[in-house]
Structure formats: structure tokens, C-alpha cells
Amino acid sequence: MKNGVYKLKGKVMNYAWGGTSFLPGLLHISNPEQKPFAEYWMGAYRLAAAELVTPEGDLSLDSLIREHPEQFLSAQALSRFGELPYLFKVQDVKDILSIQVHPNKKEAEEGFDREEAAGVPINAPHRNYKDRNHKPEVMAALSEFWLLHGFKAQAAIEQTLEDVPEFNILLSLFRKEGLKALYRFVMEMDQVDVNAMLNSLIKRELRKKNDGELTREMPGWWVAKLFHGKNEIGNIDRAIFSIYFFNIVKINPGQGIFQGPGIPHAYMEGQCIELMANSDNVLRAGLTPKHIDVPELMKHTVFESTIPNVMNGEPVLPGETIYPCPVADFGLARIELAAGGGYENRATSLEILVVTEGGILINNSLVLKTGEAAAVLAGEDYHIRASGHCVLFKAFVPAG
């Protein structure tokens, strides 16, 4: 590889929960069929690897890393991870994603080895562990963004059980045996009992939202959104309980949040940048047609109150703020420059840059406009100049 900086073409993922206009607009793609554009992947995940634009044509980032591992990753990252350890995304969340938990590294290794020994095919629908890696995540909002993140304070959960008539019957269990027993009970409840408990609640929330009595800070707003326009309620997803038991978090543009192992969470609405470890290990609690394994979910969930840590980012270089993440796999930075402003750095690993506002010039040769991305190879010195006000995000592997 003769150059150190290349334009990067990611892969669009058309999941049903995605919006129809944000990503097509960002990526300058027409969408006359109004397909859902959920995610834009910029990484080396083999099933959807990004491509470098080179004089020899568009080449798979995954293949190039395998052919030139140290030149792309750095000797340090190659020795520690053996691959690009992160997956970088832009997301547009129109509908609530599945409520989920991720295992830690040791749990992922043990779970993967256990399913391998049991002969569970890697692509089996009921397989929990697709690899031996953990899957911590950090996101930074591009718009007003809403998500569920961890359990509410014990007192707040008790107040919820008192305020929601359908939940009153759960109060004694919670007071006697605590949060884990409460969550296990609702997750293992027979479907007929779930329907009986939640049917009237959903109808009431729909009525209240229609009358303008709910806001996004309230669980009922999201429950009503889930069932809006449906003629029949039918079997009710037990994940509805989680919406009442978890923190509802609002994140403003430029702010971020880290989600580590064991913290139950779900994205609900908005656009964001997401950076995660290179893994597909997800244990789901609901709002999904995919496999749900309640015993495995319970084993890895942190049953403690969580105070969401919404980050504004820490300034480092001029124009650059970093969102601190307690993992070695990845780092995320936001760079904002005024017209004529500049940024200089040396890539300590493979860095991926994506422009979300404005346009930039890298090393006086590569132009990136809104929605375009670039890969900077390890060890490359590079400088950026802004043609006007611009915002870009950088994914990297932290040094040291």
C-alpha cells in the first residue's frame, strides 16, 4: 500500500427499524422505494466489510488487513487483537431496537467454547455466542437521541409498581426478594398472564398519548408508539416491563454514552454514531423476533441501579474531544473545525474518519464531503483543513 490515507466506502444495512431519509440523505443515495436504512458500517467485519478506494479499484478492508496486517493495524494492535478490534457505524433509529445485554470477555469465551463443544452451528438461530469477544459500545448523538440504559433506582422502580395499577400485584415480590426476582418473574411469566396484565395498560397509554398527556420522558409514550396504528394487540412482548423498569435517557447532539457488559439497554429513537468491539454476541430480552434465552440473559445482567453517565467529551487537541471508554478495543473522538481551521495527528492504529457536517481536505489531496469516510493507516502523519464549518468523528485503537 503506497499511500497512507484512502477514501472508504461502507456498507448499508437495511434493518426494519431504520428510517427512510436520514442515511440516504447523508450518503447521497436516492431511496425511491422508501427502504429502511438503519446502519452504515465502516469496518472489517467479514460479512459486510468496507472497501478502500485505490488505484487498483475498490478493495475489501478485511482482505487488505489480512494481507498487510501490521501496516494497517500497527504492531501493537496486531499483537493484542490480531484483527481490527472495532466496528464503526452511523445509525438511524426510527423504531425501538431489541432490549439486550452483552457478556464480558471471559463470559463470551466460556459461552462460545461451550456452544462449540455442544456442536451448535455458528449460524443456528438459537446460538447465543457467535465469537469469543465482548461487545462494549459507545455512541455519540447526531440528533436528539433516546435510549433505555440500565435499571432505575430501587425507589423509582417501587414507585412505578405503586403508580401503575397493573403492576401493584408485583410490589410484595419486589419488596421481599428484590430486583432480580422481580425481573425473573416477568421474564418467565406465561404469555397468557403477560397479556392479561398488560392489555389494559397498553390501551390506557394509547389513549393518553392520543390525548397529549404523555411525553418522551414517560414509559407510556414509548409503549403507545409501539402499538400505534395496530388493529389488534395480540400477544404482548414482555419487554414492555423493561420500558417501565429501565432509565429513559435523552442525549443531545454531541453528547455520548458508554454501555459496558451486563447493562441492559435499547436504542429507541434518533440518529447517532456508534462504535463497538468487533463482536456479534447479543443476549436479548425482547422486542425482537430473534432468539431469547432467559436463563442466559439473567446470568449476565447487572441487577443494580444505574446512574446514566452522559458524556460531553473531554478536550484533547484543538477542536477535538474524546469520549472516555474503559476498554482497550476502541476510542471515539469528535472533531469540530471552523472555516479554515486545521487538525494534525499521527495515526497510532488504523483510524476511520467520517464527516457528518461540512467538508474537509486531508493531506492537501483527499477531499471528503458530508457522509464520506476515510481510512488512515497506522503510523501515518496527516493533517486536515476545513473548507467551512465541519464536524467529523474518528474511530481508533488507543495507544498503550
From TrEMBL:
Q: What is its EC number?
A: 5.3.1.8
Q: What are the residue boundaries of the Phosphomannose isomerase type I catalytic domain, all occurrences included?
A: 6-152
Keyword entries, A-Z:
Isomerase, Metal-binding, Zinc
Q: What class of enzyme is it?
A: isomerase
Q: Name one GO molecular function term.
A: mannose-6-phosphate isomerase activity
Reaction(s) this enzyme catalyzes, per UniProt: D-mannose 6-phosphate = D-fructose 6-phosphate
The record, for PROSITE patterns, names: PMI_I_1, PMI_I_2
User: Keyword Glycosyltransferase on this protein?
Assistant: no
Cofactors: Zn(2+)
What domain of life does the UniProt record list for this protein's source?
Answer: Bacteria
Which CDD domains does the record match to this protein?
Answer: cupin_PMI_type_I_N
Sorted alphabetically, which PANTHER family does this protein's record hold? MANNOSE-6-PHOSPHATE ISOMERASE (PTHR10309)
Family under the similarity heading: Belongs to the mannose-6-phosphate isomerase type 1 family.
Q: What is the protein's given name?
A: mannose-6-phosphate isomerase
* Organism of this sequence: Sediminibacterium roseum
The gene designation is manA
